[in-house]
């Protein structure tokens, strides 16, 4: 997130509720974002305090996966091409260098041995391993809307995991994807991050006009 975007979100949070849904762990997200008036949700939707039971189950599964992966990957020649990030409730395997087709197949084979089998979500140079019992971003957004009584929401995302929000068939959720994709379920698209900042600024100006009337 750029300083400009962070500043715009900070100003917007003074006018309307702002929810940040991220794949980062919640503690890491708090350090990166630093928006005290916003609702922060980590680990692709899992880390919400009210979803603690599911989070505890995911944490136990994650510990088992980490032990198994560290043992299995020690024998692989492509070990130096990847980095295993433990986000407490999920694991992220970052690709430091491109893997060959054979190495990718081998890595997915290792993932399939894990018990219980994780949900695998591809990202930008990363593979996320998440508990199948975990909340996704769409479920987390619905949960927070119900909990706080929000009747409508405006959601902007650019990641594969944001499709869990885009797929929701609810006219109360206005969904926008950054970067066009013919396979996306988002209703609308923006071309770049610069357009996100302009959109946030326009929303802020609109809300200020509403307050003035």
Polypeptide structure, described:
- The chain is 42% helix and 19% strand.
- With 213 residues, it is an alpha/beta fold.
- It folds into 2 domains: 3-17 and 135-212, Rossmann fold (3-Layer(aba) Sandwich); 51-130, Alpha-Beta Plaits.
- The strands form 3 sheets. The protein has a 4-stranded antiparallel β-sheet, with helices on one face. Strands 7-8-9 form a 3-stranded parallel β-sheet.
- Helix 1 (3-12) runs parallel beside helix 7 (193-212).
- The two termini are 33 Å apart.
**Distance, first to last CA:** 33 Å
Number of domains: 2
The average pLDDT value, as a whole number, equals 89
Please write the CATH class name of the largest domain.
Alpha Beta
The global form is: elongated
Q: Give the H and E element order.
A: HEHEHEEHEEHEHEEH
CATH superfamily of the largest domain: HAD superfamily/HAD-like
CATH topology of the largest domain: Rossmann fold
The CATH architecture of the largest domain comes to: 3-Layer(aba) Sandwich
* Sheet having the most strands: 4 strands, antiparallel
Helix tally equals 7
Low-confidence stretches: none
Q: Can you give the helix content as a percent range? A: 40-55%
Strand count: 9
Short summary of the structure?
This protein is α/β, with parallel strands linked by helices and 213 residues long. The chain contains 7 helices and 9 strands; from the N terminus they run αβαβαββαββαβαββα.
Which helices and strands occur, and which strands form pairs?
Layout: H1 3-12, E1 19-21, H2 26-33, E2 39-41, H3 52-73, E3 82-86, E4 90-95, H4 101-113, E5 119-123, E6 126-130, H5 137-148, E7 153-157, H6 163-166, E8 173-178, E9 188-190, H7 193-212
Parallel strand pairs: 1-2, 7-8, 8-9
Antiparallel strand pairs: 3-4, 4-6, 5-6
Helix pairs in contact: 1-7
